[in-house]
Amino acid sequence: xxxxxxxxxxxxxxxxxxxxxxxxxxxxxxxxxxxxxxxxxxxxxxxxxxxxxxxxxxxxxxxxxxxxxxxxxxxxxxxxxxxxxxxxxxxxxxxxxxxxxxxxxxxxxxxxxxxxxxxxxxxxxxxxxxxxxxxxxxxxxxxxxxxxxxxxxxxxxxxxxxxxxxxxxxxxxxxxxxxxxxxxxxxxxxxxxxxxxxxxxxxxxxxxxxxxxxxxxxxxxxxxxxxxxxxxxxxxxxxxxxxxxxxxxxxxxxxxxxxxxxxxxxxxxxxxxxxxxxxxxxxxxxxxxxxxxxxxxxxxxxxxxxxxxxxxxxxxxxxxxxxxxxxxxxxxxxxxxxxxx
Length: 341
Fold this sequence. Notes:
six-stranded mixed sheet; four-stranded antiparallel sheet; disordered N terminus; Aminopeptidase; 2 domains; elongated; 8 helices; Alpha-Beta Plaits
Protein backbone atom coordinates (compact mmCIF):
# COMPACT_ATOMS: atom_id res chain seq x y z
CA UNK A 1 0.00 0.00 0.00
CA UNK A 2 1.35 3.46 -0.92
CA UNK A 3 2.04 6.17 1.65
CA UNK A 4 -0.82 8.23 0.21
CA UNK A 5 -3.24 5.29 0.51
CA UNK A 6 -2.13 4.60 4.07
CA UNK A 7 -2.54 8.24 5.13
CA UNK A 8 -5.97 8.49 3.49
CA UNK A 9 -7.18 5.30 5.13
CA UNK A 10 -6.13 6.44 8.59
CA UNK A 11 -6.87 10.17 8.31
CA UNK A 12 -9.06 11.35 11.22
CA UNK A 13 -10.63 14.65 10.18
CA UNK A 14 -12.04 15.40 13.63
CA UNK A 15 -8.69 14.84 15.34
CA UNK A 16 -6.97 16.91 12.64
CA UNK A 17 -9.42 19.77 13.17
CA UNK A 18 -9.08 19.62 16.96
CA UNK A 19 -5.30 19.73 16.72
CA UNK A 20 -5.64 23.08 14.96
CA UNK A 21 -8.53 24.35 17.09
CA UNK A 22 -6.57 23.83 20.30
CA UNK A 23 -4.05 26.46 19.21
CA UNK A 24 -5.15 30.09 19.37
CA UNK A 25 -4.96 31.60 15.89
CA UNK A 26 -6.87 34.82 16.38
CA UNK A 27 -6.13 37.04 13.38
CA UNK A 28 -2.59 38.37 13.74
CA UNK A 29 -1.49 35.40 15.87
CA UNK A 30 -1.57 32.59 13.30
CA UNK A 31 2.13 31.62 13.36
CA UNK A 32 1.91 28.75 15.87
CA UNK A 33 -1.01 27.00 14.21
CA UNK A 34 0.62 27.62 10.83
CA UNK A 35 3.73 25.76 11.97
CA UNK A 36 1.64 22.81 13.15
CA UNK A 37 -0.44 22.73 9.97
CA UNK A 38 2.65 22.83 7.75
CA UNK A 39 4.27 20.03 9.77
CA UNK A 40 1.11 17.90 9.65
CA UNK A 41 0.84 18.27 5.87
CA UNK A 42 4.50 17.38 5.38
CA UNK A 43 3.97 14.29 7.54
CA UNK A 44 1.17 13.26 5.18
CA UNK A 45 3.57 13.50 2.24
CA UNK A 46 2.65 16.88 0.77
CA UNK A 47 5.22 19.29 -0.64
CA UNK A 48 4.66 22.41 1.48
CA UNK A 49 5.57 26.01 0.69
CA UNK A 50 5.34 28.63 3.43
CA UNK A 51 4.70 32.09 1.97
CA UNK A 52 5.55 34.96 4.35
CA UNK A 53 2.78 37.52 4.88
CA UNK A 54 3.81 39.70 7.83
CA UNK A 55 5.94 39.17 10.90
CA UNK A 56 5.92 35.44 11.65
CA UNK A 57 2.62 34.90 9.83
CA UNK A 58 2.59 32.87 6.62
CA UNK A 59 0.30 31.19 4.10
CA UNK A 60 0.60 27.50 3.26
CA UNK A 61 0.52 25.94 -0.21
CA UNK A 62 0.63 22.13 -0.35
CA UNK A 63 1.02 20.26 -3.64
CA UNK A 64 2.03 16.87 -5.03
CA UNK A 65 1.89 17.77 -8.72
CA UNK A 66 0.79 20.66 -10.94
CA UNK A 67 -2.60 21.66 -9.51
CA UNK A 68 -5.68 22.22 -11.63
CA UNK A 69 -8.10 22.34 -8.69
CA UNK A 70 -7.22 24.14 -5.46
CA UNK A 71 -8.98 23.74 -2.13
CA UNK A 72 -8.61 26.87 -0.04
CA UNK A 73 -9.75 28.34 3.26
CA UNK A 74 -8.32 30.37 6.14
CA UNK A 75 -6.83 29.31 9.46
CA UNK A 76 -7.23 32.55 11.36
CA UNK A 77 -10.23 32.98 13.67
CA UNK A 78 -12.16 35.77 15.34
CA UNK A 79 -11.74 36.41 19.07
CA UNK A 80 -12.25 35.30 21.74
CA UNK A 81 -10.37 32.02 21.57
CA UNK A 82 -11.76 28.93 23.31
CA UNK A 83 -10.49 25.35 22.82
CA UNK A 84 -12.24 22.37 21.27
CA UNK A 85 -14.45 19.72 22.79
CA UNK A 86 -16.80 17.07 21.43
CA UNK A 87 -20.38 16.81 22.68
CA UNK A 88 -22.24 14.00 20.95
CA UNK A 89 -22.24 14.78 17.22
CA UNK A 90 -20.99 18.33 17.78
CA UNK A 91 -17.42 19.50 17.41
CA UNK A 92 -17.42 22.63 19.59
CA UNK A 93 -14.90 25.45 19.82
CA UNK A 94 -13.50 28.46 18.04
CA UNK A 95 -12.89 27.63 14.41
CA UNK A 96 -15.14 24.56 14.40
CA UNK A 97 -17.05 25.81 11.37
CA UNK A 98 -15.05 28.95 10.57
CA UNK A 99 -12.89 27.49 9.35
CA UNK A 100 -10.67 24.78 10.84
CA UNK A 101 -13.31 22.08 10.53
CA UNK A 102 -13.73 23.08 6.90
CA UNK A 103 -9.95 22.95 6.46
CA UNK A 104 -9.85 19.42 7.88
CA UNK A 105 -12.60 18.33 5.46
CA UNK A 106 -10.60 19.75 2.55
CA UNK A 107 -7.43 17.94 3.62
CA UNK A 108 -9.39 14.70 4.00
CA UNK A 109 -10.89 15.10 0.52
CA UNK A 110 -7.50 15.84 -0.99
CA UNK A 111 -6.05 12.79 0.77
CA UNK A 112 -8.80 10.60 -0.69
CA UNK A 113 -8.16 11.96 -4.18
CA UNK A 114 -4.42 11.51 -3.80
CA UNK A 115 -4.90 7.92 -2.63
CA UNK A 116 -6.78 7.29 -5.88
CA UNK A 117 -3.78 8.57 -7.85
CA UNK A 118 -4.96 12.15 -8.43
CA UNK A 119 -2.04 14.60 -8.17
CA UNK A 120 -3.66 17.69 -9.73
CA UNK A 121 -5.08 18.99 -6.44
CA UNK A 122 -3.57 21.64 -4.18
CA UNK A 123 -4.30 22.93 -0.69
CA UNK A 124 -4.02 26.69 -0.13
CA UNK A 125 -4.51 27.86 3.45
CA UNK A 126 -4.22 31.54 4.29
CA UNK A 127 -4.04 33.92 7.22
CA UNK A 128 -5.95 37.13 7.78
CA UNK A 129 -9.36 36.42 6.24
CA UNK A 130 -11.22 37.79 9.24
CA UNK A 131 -9.52 41.17 9.03
CA UNK A 132 -8.83 42.46 5.54
CA UNK A 133 -7.71 39.29 3.70
CA UNK A 134 -4.02 40.19 3.69
CA UNK A 135 -3.15 36.50 3.39
CA UNK A 136 -5.33 35.97 0.32
CA UNK A 137 -3.98 39.09 -1.35
CA UNK A 138 -0.46 37.80 -0.83
CA UNK A 139 -1.37 34.27 -1.97
CA UNK A 140 -2.73 35.70 -5.20
CA UNK A 141 0.85 36.53 -6.22
CA UNK A 142 1.94 32.87 -6.19
CA UNK A 143 2.47 31.45 -9.70
CA UNK A 144 0.09 28.62 -10.47
CA UNK A 145 -1.85 26.85 -13.23
CA UNK A 146 -4.98 26.18 -11.19
CA UNK A 147 -8.22 26.24 -13.20
CA UNK A 148 -10.68 26.09 -10.29
CA UNK A 149 -10.69 27.34 -6.69
CA UNK A 150 -12.96 25.61 -4.15
CA UNK A 151 -13.10 28.11 -1.30
CA UNK A 152 -14.28 26.81 2.05
CA UNK A 153 -16.71 28.74 4.23
CA UNK A 154 -19.76 27.58 6.20
CA UNK A 155 -22.48 27.08 3.56
CA UNK A 156 -24.48 24.22 5.13
CA UNK A 157 -23.15 21.96 2.34
CA UNK A 158 -24.70 24.20 -0.32
CA UNK A 159 -22.82 25.58 -3.29
CA UNK A 160 -22.79 29.35 -3.38
CA UNK A 161 -24.09 31.07 -6.49
CA UNK A 162 -22.90 34.50 -5.37
CA UNK A 163 -21.66 36.47 -2.39
CA UNK A 164 -22.62 40.04 -1.66
CA UNK A 165 -20.02 42.74 -1.84
CA UNK A 166 -19.35 45.22 0.92
CA UNK A 167 -18.46 48.88 1.26
CA UNK A 168 -17.77 50.52 4.60
CA UNK A 169 -17.88 54.23 5.40
CA UNK A 170 -16.91 56.39 8.34
CA UNK A 171 -18.89 59.61 8.66
CA UNK A 172 -17.26 62.61 10.35
CA UNK A 173 -19.53 65.40 11.60
CA UNK A 174 -18.07 68.66 12.91
CA UNK A 175 -19.78 71.12 15.21
CA UNK A 176 -18.83 73.86 17.65
CA UNK A 177 -18.45 73.32 21.40
CA UNK A 178 -20.42 75.46 23.83
CA UNK A 179 -21.92 75.31 27.32
CA UNK A 180 -25.07 73.18 27.12
CA UNK A 181 -26.93 75.94 28.98
CA UNK A 182 -26.34 78.20 25.97
CA UNK A 183 -26.80 75.89 22.98
CA UNK A 184 -27.29 78.83 20.62
CA UNK A 185 -23.57 79.55 20.99
CA UNK A 186 -22.57 76.15 19.62
CA UNK A 187 -23.43 73.66 16.92
CA UNK A 188 -24.16 70.03 17.76
CA UNK A 189 -22.16 67.57 15.69
CA UNK A 190 -24.26 64.76 17.15
CA UNK A 191 -27.54 66.23 15.93
CA UNK A 192 -26.02 66.82 12.50
CA UNK A 193 -24.85 63.21 12.37
CA UNK A 194 -28.20 61.83 13.53
CA UNK A 195 -30.04 63.89 10.91
CA UNK A 196 -27.77 62.50 8.19
CA UNK A 197 -28.16 58.94 9.43
CA UNK A 198 -31.93 59.30 9.32
CA UNK A 199 -31.69 60.49 5.71
CA UNK A 200 -29.64 57.40 4.84
CA UNK A 201 -32.02 55.10 6.73
CA UNK A 202 -34.98 56.37 4.73
CA UNK A 203 -33.22 56.26 1.36
CA UNK A 204 -33.88 53.64 -1.31
CA UNK A 205 -30.94 51.35 -2.08
CA UNK A 206 -30.37 48.94 -4.99
CA UNK A 207 -31.82 45.45 -5.15
CA UNK A 208 -31.12 42.46 -7.39
CA UNK A 209 -33.40 39.60 -8.47
CA UNK A 210 -30.84 37.01 -7.33
CA UNK A 211 -28.96 38.71 -4.49
CA UNK A 212 -31.94 40.54 -2.99
CA UNK A 213 -31.90 43.99 -1.44
CA UNK A 214 -28.93 45.98 -0.20
CA UNK A 215 -28.27 45.50 3.52
CA UNK A 216 -27.35 48.67 5.43
CA UNK A 217 -26.07 48.68 9.00
CA UNK A 218 -25.10 51.54 11.32
CA UNK A 219 -22.51 49.65 13.30
CA UNK A 220 -20.67 52.19 15.45
CA UNK A 221 -21.51 55.61 16.88
CA UNK A 222 -19.27 57.93 18.88
CA UNK A 223 -18.88 61.60 19.67
CA UNK A 224 -19.02 64.43 22.14
CA UNK A 225 -16.90 65.20 25.18
CA UNK A 226 -19.34 65.53 28.12
CA UNK A 227 -23.10 65.62 28.79
CA UNK A 228 -22.97 69.35 29.54
CA UNK A 229 -21.03 70.33 26.42
CA UNK A 230 -22.52 70.84 22.97
CA UNK A 231 -20.64 68.13 21.01
CA UNK A 232 -17.99 69.49 18.63
CA UNK A 233 -17.52 66.17 16.81
CA UNK A 234 -19.35 62.90 16.14
CA UNK A 235 -18.67 59.81 14.06
CA UNK A 236 -20.53 56.83 12.66
CA UNK A 237 -19.38 53.70 10.84
CA UNK A 238 -21.69 52.19 8.23
CA UNK A 239 -21.54 48.92 6.33
CA UNK A 240 -23.42 48.31 3.10
CA UNK A 241 -23.71 44.70 1.88
CA UNK A 242 -23.97 45.38 -1.84
CA UNK A 243 -25.88 43.58 -4.59
CA UNK A 244 -24.60 45.53 -7.58
CA UNK A 245 -22.20 48.28 -8.60
CA UNK A 246 -20.72 49.79 -5.43
CA UNK A 247 -20.28 53.11 -7.24
CA UNK A 248 -24.06 53.55 -7.01
CA UNK A 249 -23.78 53.38 -3.22
CA UNK A 250 -20.79 55.72 -3.15
CA UNK A 251 -22.50 58.36 -5.28
CA UNK A 252 -25.78 58.11 -3.38
CA UNK A 253 -24.15 58.55 0.03
CA UNK A 254 -22.27 61.61 -1.20
CA UNK A 255 -25.38 63.10 -2.80
CA UNK A 256 -27.49 62.61 0.31
CA UNK A 257 -25.13 63.69 3.11
CA UNK A 258 -21.78 64.72 1.60
CA UNK A 259 -22.55 68.43 1.86
CA UNK A 260 -23.15 68.24 5.64
CA UNK A 261 -20.33 65.99 6.80
CA UNK A 262 -17.19 64.23 5.59
CA UNK A 263 -17.58 60.75 4.10
CA UNK A 264 -14.56 58.42 4.28
CA UNK A 265 -14.56 55.01 2.62
CA UNK A 266 -12.68 52.56 4.83
CA UNK A 267 -13.16 49.15 3.17
CA UNK A 268 -14.44 47.59 -0.04
CA UNK A 269 -15.07 44.01 -1.14
CA UNK A 270 -16.58 43.35 -4.59
CA UNK A 271 -19.51 41.00 -5.00
CA UNK A 272 -18.71 37.67 -6.64
CA UNK A 273 -20.68 35.43 -9.00
CA UNK A 274 -19.69 31.82 -8.40
CA UNK A 275 -19.44 28.62 -10.45
CA UNK A 276 -21.59 25.63 -9.49
CA UNK A 277 -21.88 21.96 -10.39
CA UNK A 278 -25.00 19.80 -10.54
CA UNK A 279 -26.24 17.75 -7.62
CA UNK A 280 -25.94 20.31 -4.82
CA UNK A 281 -28.41 22.71 -3.25
CA UNK A 282 -27.47 26.28 -4.13
CA UNK A 283 -27.73 29.58 -2.27
CA UNK A 284 -26.63 33.22 -2.18
CA UNK A 285 -24.51 34.26 0.82
CA UNK A 286 -24.39 37.69 2.44
CA UNK A 287 -20.95 37.42 4.01
CA UNK A 288 -17.56 38.36 2.59
CA UNK A 289 -14.88 35.78 1.72
CA UNK A 290 -11.33 35.63 0.38
CA UNK A 291 -12.65 34.74 -3.09
CA UNK A 292 -12.40 38.25 -4.63
CA UNK A 293 -8.72 38.35 -3.71
CA UNK A 294 -7.82 34.92 -5.14
CA UNK A 295 -8.85 35.48 -8.75
CA UNK A 296 -5.51 34.15 -10.07
CA UNK A 297 -6.40 30.68 -8.76
CA UNK A 298 -9.13 29.91 -11.26
CA UNK A 299 -12.91 29.94 -11.50
CA UNK A 300 -14.27 30.15 -7.93
CA UNK A 301 -16.71 27.89 -6.10
CA UNK A 302 -17.87 28.24 -2.49
CA UNK A 303 -18.65 25.17 -0.38
CA UNK A 304 -18.32 23.95 3.17
CA UNK A 305 -19.99 22.35 6.18
CA UNK A 306 -21.51 24.29 9.05
CA UNK A 307 -23.73 27.32 9.47
CA UNK A 308 -22.66 30.95 9.30
CA UNK A 309 -25.28 31.58 12.00
CA UNK A 310 -23.08 29.97 14.66
CA UNK A 311 -19.75 31.24 13.32
CA UNK A 312 -18.26 34.05 15.44
CA UNK A 313 -20.47 33.07 18.41
CA UNK A 314 -19.63 31.67 21.85
CA UNK A 315 -21.39 28.43 20.87
CA UNK A 316 -19.66 27.81 17.53
CA UNK A 317 -19.91 24.19 16.47
CA UNK A 318 -19.83 21.83 13.51
CA UNK A 319 -21.83 18.63 13.17
CA UNK A 320 -19.38 15.75 12.83
CA UNK A 321 -21.76 14.04 10.41
CA UNK A 322 -21.78 17.20 8.31
CA UNK A 323 -17.97 17.36 8.39
CA UNK A 324 -17.82 13.84 6.93
CA UNK A 325 -20.50 14.72 4.36
CA UNK A 326 -18.34 17.70 3.35
CA UNK A 327 -15.43 15.36 2.63
CA UNK A 328 -17.65 13.40 0.23
CA UNK A 329 -18.97 16.64 -1.29
CA UNK A 330 -15.51 18.06 -1.84
CA UNK A 331 -14.39 14.86 -3.56
CA UNK A 332 -17.45 14.92 -5.84
CA UNK A 333 -16.95 18.58 -6.76
CA UNK A 334 -13.22 18.23 -7.39
CA UNK A 335 -13.70 15.07 -9.46
CA UNK A 336 -16.20 16.80 -11.73
CA UNK A 337 -13.97 19.85 -12.11
CA UNK A 338 -10.87 17.76 -12.83
CA UNK A 339 -12.73 16.03 -15.65
CA UNK A 340 -12.89 19.40 -17.44
CA UNK A 341 -9.56 20.91 -16.35
